[in-house]
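[Automated response] Your request has been received and processed.

Submitted sequence:
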Amino acid sequence: MHVKEMFKDRMVFSFEVFPPKKTSSIDVIYNTLDELRDLRPDFISVTFSAGGSSNNALACDIASKIKNNGVVPMIHLPCINYTREEITGTLTEIKDRGIENILALRGDINPDIPPKKEFKYASDLIEFIRSQGNFDIAGACYPECHPDASSLEVDILNLKRKVEAGADHLISQLFFDNSSFYEFLWKARAAGINVPIEAGIMPVVNKNQIERMVTTCGASLPKKFVKIMQKFEHSPEALRDAGIAYAVNQIVDLAASGVDGIHLYTMNNAYVARKISEAVSGIIRT
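Generated structure:
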C-alpha cells in the first residue's frame, strides 16, 4: 500500500527504526518490530546508511520483516554517496521485495567519503525514482531549517523543488517547540507546498541522546524542555518518564491543530513507543 493513500481520511501515525549495530544480534530489532506491530502504526520506516555500509542490505531485510508482520514498510534511500547504477540496483531489490514506499534523502556528507557526483540533492534522487516505477516517495523537511541552508525561506524553496520533482508527502526532522513547526508549516503552504506533512517527534529519554540530536540536527531547545532536562538528568527513570510526557504533550497539541500525521522516532525503544502510543491512542484514532 502507498503511504500517500493513508492521509485521505485520517491523521497518520508512524514509527521509525534503524538496523542494529554490528555487535548486536538481529533478533534484537526483530523482537522490537514484533512489539511495535502490536501498537498498530500506519507504517514503519527503516533508516539506510548514507555511506554504503553492509547495513543497507540489513535495512532491506528489516523492511521485509515489517511487511511480513502485516505493517506497511518504508525504506530510507540516501543518494550522496551512491552512483546511478548503485541506486538502480537498490531500487530493483526494493521492488523485488514488494516494498513500495521510499524516503528519498540526500544523506549526511561524510568528510572521510568523497561524495559521488550523480545525485547532488534529494530532488535529483526523487526525480530519478519517479522515472523508475510506481513508488510512493516521501521527502524530508526541516522545521527549523536544514543545517546547510542559508535561511528557512531558501530551504522551503528547495523543499518545493522536491515536491515538484515528485515527492508525494513529507516527514519532518525532529523538533521540540511546536510553534517552530507551525511557523514552518504556514510558510510551506504559502509557498505552494500542499502535500501532507508529518511532524517528526523524538521522545528524549537520556541526556546523551539530546546532546547528540542537537549536535546533528540543530533543533532548538525551549526553556521548558531545558528545565525538564536539568531537573531530571541525574535520574534515568525520571528523565525517561519526563521525556515521554513531553512528547505526548507535543502530539496532543499537534493533533488538536489538525496536523497531517505524527512520525515517532522510536530509537528502537519499544517501551517508550508503547507508552506514548497508549497515551494518545484515543486521539490519533479519532
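Summary generated for your ticket: The longest helix spans residues 236-256. The mean pLDDT is 91.
If you did not submit this request, please reply to this message.
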